[in-house]
UniProtKB/TrEMBL annotation:
Pfam families tied to this protein: Thioredox_DsbH
Keyword Signal set for record: yes
Organism whose genome encodes this protein: Brumimicrobium oceani
Domain Thioredoxin as annotated: residue spans: 12-142
Name of the molecule in the record: Thioredoxin
Signal peptide bounds: 1-21
InterPro entries per UniProt: Ssp411, Ssp411-like_TRX, Thioredoxin-like_sf, Thioredoxin_domain
Keyword Protein biosynthesis: no
Lineage, opening ranks: Bacteria, Pseudomonadati, Bacteroidota, Flavobacteriia, Flavobacteriales
UniProt entry keywords in alphabetical sequence: Signal
Length: 142
């Protein structure tokens, strides 16, 4: 009987962890859209916004650090989700190498604000904290 009670408690705890597990909709920070670069350009034109492109590589430590910190900041998410079309592209896969050549990406992370015509309005090199990133884009925020 004692083992049955322990098993019941363990099952209840495991089950409740699924109920309380966070979902993507509850996450704070930048909402990166799953768009091709061309789709992002078209959306930027249509919505009259700039694209925020995070040009990264999977092996890049500072890129991973920004994913865990800067890009998860509520302050950053509030500003970026309202003002920009946010996309992340691995510069070593898919369309990434062509974009890296087009925009001369030579270091990671490289972040860019790009207009609907494909012109770079702002380039940010290297890892930055949330307050630094917000300062960098301040002139482009409505």
């Amino acid at each position: 009987m004692k083992y049955l009670s322990v098993i019941t408690i363990v099952i209840a705890l495991i089950g409740s962890s699924f109920v309380w597990a966070p979902t993507n909709s509850d996450e704070e920070g930048i909402n990166f859209e799953t768009l091709s670069f061309e789709e992002a350009i078209q959306k930027a034109k249509k919505e009259n916004k700039l694209i925020f492109l995070d040009a990264y590589a999977v092996w890049c430590g500072p890129c991973k650090m920004m994913d865990r910190t800067t890009f998860k900041s509520k302050k950053v998410g509030d500003v970026f989700n309202e003002n920009f079309i946010n996309i992340k592209i691995d510069m070593e896969k898919g369309e990434g190498p062509a974009i890296a050549r087009r925009y001369q990406v030579r270091a990671y992370p490289t972040m860019m604000l790009i207009n609907g015509e494909g012109k770079v309005e702002k380039r940010i090199l290297g890892a930055v904290r949330d307050t630094q990133l917000l300062q960098e884009v301040n002139d482009f925020v409505k």
